[in-house]
Every structure is written in structure tokens, then in C-alpha cells.
Amino acid sequence: DTGVSQDPRHKITKRGQNVTFRCDPISEHNRLYWYRQTLGQGPEFLTYFQNEAQLEKSRLLSDRFSAERPKGSFSTLEIQRTEQGDSAMYLCASSPRGVNTEAFFGQGTRLTVV
Amino acid sequence: QKEVEQNSGPLSVPEGAIASLNCTYSDRGSQSFFWYRQYSGKSPELIMSIYSNGDKEDGRFTAQLNKASQYVSLLIRDSQPSDSATYLCAPRAFKAAGNKLTFGGGTRVLVKP
User: Fold this and answer.
1) Which of A7, A34, A37, A60 is the best residue to mutate to test the B interface, defined by the most B CB atoms within 10 Å of its own CB?
2) If B74 and its partner were Cys, which of A2, A21, A65, B21 is the partner (CB 3.0–4.6 Å)?
3) Is the preceding omega at residue B113 within 30 degrees of 0, hence cis?
4) Closest A-chain CA to B101
């Protein structure tokens, strides 16, 4: 198992464009998380999936953000009409079922909106 | 009050010394506690997990948990320059709607040779 995989690693986009990121979790991990991190801050929670169900979504997340996990395996995060404030590292993590289980992060996707 | 509080640092320690990092959290429903290490420009890497009150040792790292005080700490013994990084504390509460990890802002550690 190669761990959590994110694609692309870097994305530069113009303001107003839509972008989509992909996350492939560790196989058989049914839980998947998206976080956003800006310089000097800790990761900020965006949304959480258990299998294909989106169970939790941050109230801070605007309607321009949407995430899916259609078959309970990989997930996509889409940002519509990007703004400069969306520039950040987008992190995906996965963990297996169970109470005391560990979550592992992918390498992240660094988004720059110009 | 922030959900998870950490001293932002930098915490400067000489090589070979012990680095002591602290974290307090507000959610009494937190059941699992994790420490991640993050190098500049990289993603967080899990280094310790602790679920019960007391100490847990793994190599040069020791995590300490006190649920009554809502406090978790990380000790790094025999600090090395390669330990220079930001350390993130992340409690996790299990609820019907989800079980996200909530991160503190991190403590930056600088180990000086």
C-alpha cells in the first residue's frame, strides 16, 4: 500500500476558474477527511466522509466548495469561481473503521490563485 | 476559546536536550489524541497516538494524556536537528455525525546543534 495519494500536487489557476482535486485513500479505509491549511496555521477541517456518505461539513465552507466520494473509494474536492483567498494547501486524510484508529495524510495539493 | 490550544513557539532547544510540548483541548468528548510532525512545505506525518490517561513511549517520543485536565503533551528526548519542525496536536471526538480531528495551530520546534 502506497498510502494516501493526492493529485495534482500543485495547481496554479486564475481567479474565477474552477478547480478539482482528487484523493485516493489507503485501501479499505472507510473514513476520508479534507482539510485546508494556510501558512502558519494548523489544518482546518472542511468535510468528512464515511464510505460514500458525507457526514460532516464545516460551516465555514462556502457554497463554492463541494466534495464527493461516489463509490466510497476516491474523493474529489471542487472549488468553483476560485478567489485569491482560496490559495492554500488542501490535505486529504484517511483512517480505517473503529474507535481508536489513526488518520494518515496525503502529500497535499498546493493551490495558488492568481 | 480555541478548541485546541498550543504555544506557537518557536521552542528553541539545544541538541541532545528534551523538548516539551503542551496542548489543551476544550471538547470533553475527545477520545483519541494524535501528534503530527510537519516539516515546512510538507504534509503532516503521524508520530504518536494516545488513547488512555498516562504515558505512552515510542522511541525518543513520549506522549502524556490527562483527560480530567484536558491536557496532552509530547516529550522529545535527545532532540536532533532533524526534529526541527512544527508539531500539531489533534484530539478526536467520536460523534454520530462524524469524528473529525481538530488541530491546534502547532508548536514550531528549533533544535540547535
Assistant:
1) A37
2) B21
3) no
4) A45
